[in-house]
Amino acid sequence: LGKCLLSPIVLAAYAYNRSLSELGPGGRGEDEPGVLCQLFAFLMAFFGLAPTLLLLAMALECWLSLGHPYFYRRHLTRRLGATLGPAAAGLCALFCALPLLGFGVPMQYCPGTWCFIRMAGGGPRQLGFPVLYASLMGLLVLAIVACNVSSMRHLYGMARRQPRRGPAPAAAPRMEELDHLVLLGLMTVLFTICSLPLIIRAYMGAFAADFNENADLSALRFLSVNSIVDPWVFIIFRTSVFR
């Protein structure tokens, strides 16, 4: 959904050879970006945070189902799963709308085809939101890594408890658990590598006054790479396909 909403805006900017603020003017001041740029910054922030929150829900489910199966069976229902997605999206939308209300500043970055929250320069009111955003992302990343590491530990323990001798079908469950362990490990490493640059850039811009648009662009590219590569890692290293 994020790619489908954001990509046409970028392609239109290149097609007309105009910046996002020129394509969608209407800012309240001369230095304020246009409406389209503000919408783009909101969508970038939302689709960076909302999938991370959903990944945390998936990591928690995996950890509970492997480590606490009785609690999982008793308390986690389909109704809870159905309401969790919209609830997470609504909370992320409210949080990411704060710059539109004045807490944080949307900014157009070079070459004018993308916008995001200003991560360097300005006062506490301007830099408070990117620091809060990066802190929330950092906490989510730490929680996801902790849940996935715990799940990997449970999978490894389950694989070790499988019998080592016997016909081939007896060894199949052990192989399946190790396959899931490898998949979970790859996705955890990829997610962590892709998320950390944005968190680091937000803190450097706020506390070290390091305004570097190229570094900010690289951080956003890393964050985008995760949403592109992660599904393919899941597809390719899924047990049946990988074998």
Would you kindly provide a written description of the structure presented here, covering whatever features stand out?
This is PD2R protein. Residues 1-234 form the G-protein coupled receptors family 1 profile domain. It is a multi-pass membrane protein. The chain crosses the membrane at residues 39-66, 87-107, 127-151, 181-200, 220-237. The two termini are 31 Å apart. The protein has one domain: Up-down Bundle (Rhopdopsin 7-helix transmembrane proteins). The chain is mostly helical and 243 residues long. The protein contains 9 helices and 2 strands. 76% of the residues lie in helices and 3% in strands. The protein is elongated. The chain has a two-stranded antiparallel ribbon with strand order 1-2.
Topology (SSEs and partners):
Layout lengths: L1 H15 L3 H4 L11 H33 L1 H7 L2 H19 L9 E4 L4 E4 L6 H38 L6 H40 L5 H24 L2 H4 L1
Antiparallel strand pairs: 1-2
Helix pairs in contact: 1-3, 3-4, 3-5, 3-6, 6-7, 7-8
Name the poorly predicted regions.
none
Which CATH architecture?
Up-down Bundle
H-E order: HHHHHEEHHHH
Classification by helices and strands:
mainly alpha
Which sequence of strands runs across the widest sheet? Answer: 1-2
Corresponding CATH superfamily: Rhodopsin 7-helix transmembrane proteins
Task: State the CATH topology.
Answer: Rhopdopsin 7-helix transmembrane proteins
Task: Summarize model confidence as the mean pLDDT.
Answer: 78
Oligomer: single chain
